[in-house]
Task: structure prediction
Amino acid sequence: MPAVRVSRPRRAAPADAVRPTRAEVNLEAVRKNLHAVRKAAAGQRVLGVLKADGYGHGAPAIARTLERAGIDGFAVALLEEGVELRDAGIKAPILVMGGLYGDAFEAVLGHDLIPVVYDRGHIEALARAARHAGVRARVHLKLDTGMARLGVRDGELPGVLDALRAAPELEVEALMTHLACADAPSRESMDEQLARFERATTRVREAGVQFATRHAANSAALLRGAPTLGVVRPGLALFGLSPVDGGPALSPVMRVRSEIACLRGLAAGESAGYGSTFTARRPTVLATVPVGYADGLSRSLSNRGEMLVRGRRAPIAGTVSMDMVMLDVTDIAGARVRDEVVVLGAQQGPLGRDEIRATELAELAGTIPWEILTSISRRVPRFYREP
Ligand SMILES: Cc1ncc(COP(=O)(O)O)c(C=O)c1O
Result:
């Protein structure tokens, strides 16, 4: 097999965990979400999007779970991510969407990865590598229908189709596009892009370039019922979050928890944390929790976010620091050192039950749930649960 340099992500392993801060990944929830996605896909093939280390959940473990549960294939952004899944023993088809192959087309073929192509350079280099290896290579041709990020623009289509016709080593398995506004309140932009995709599809057919199937739908498009194209490409929904209102019930997969490391009492008027941005208005009990922005807890949650202790919400007091955060636990009766603190997910405790969802954290932090999940950093060990 040709050599490819893969930068292997080094993650904290459960065995390394001294600190009580960890991400628990519920594999049963992943299977449930696949079931819901399959139902929404109504017979279309499902490619699970596992880029960015499976949205921060650990791509190899999620891929193994989904593969055993019968998913049709995977999509990743980077060649390295595809190689990592193959090295983990994943046999299902893997689509590499990011389009950056450098000089590593041999590695693409050697690892049986399916590259997304959208320019003549890709097509010519891949055809050479396929000829050299004596194989036929499958590709997905990406068309830009309005996202203006990657994909063949209308004006470039004739040249790209010429290159494909001149490359008998390549088989276009699918046409694909990506939707910019599938989760917008109105369907107008999504429908316009899908209409452009239809027109571009006709041009590809008329040029005599064959393909077996097509795909466009991310989670939002799938869950709001985009037209059936043959294949869907959801990511977020598999991790239990819906980017649109309504739709099937999904089960959040990741729970991030830590513990109270120490407690202290502040007199009214005393301040806490960097910049002294929190000042006690009353006699206050502060809990220090060993999770900070280097773990993925956004600094913009300073004095805004909440965490769960004993089943009840405790506000973040002061500025989130790199490795720690303080909570105001004055109103959490009985709060003690080593009490569990939930940053993301549900908690049942003596004072009740509550849940903090990634969507809630995203809104508070001025971002999106995708960023909340993918920001949980590699120093937070992932513990996989099979309840
Ligand atoms: C090209 C492409 N397809 C599919 C997806 C999956 O999107 P989502 O996580 O919204 O389902 C992404 C993720 O951003 C993507 O970039």
Remarks:
- The domain at 27-239 is CATH 3.20.20.10 (TIM Barrel).
- The first strand starts at residue 22 and ends at 26.
- The CA atoms of residues 251 and 336 lie 30 Å apart.
- The radius of gyration is 24 Å.
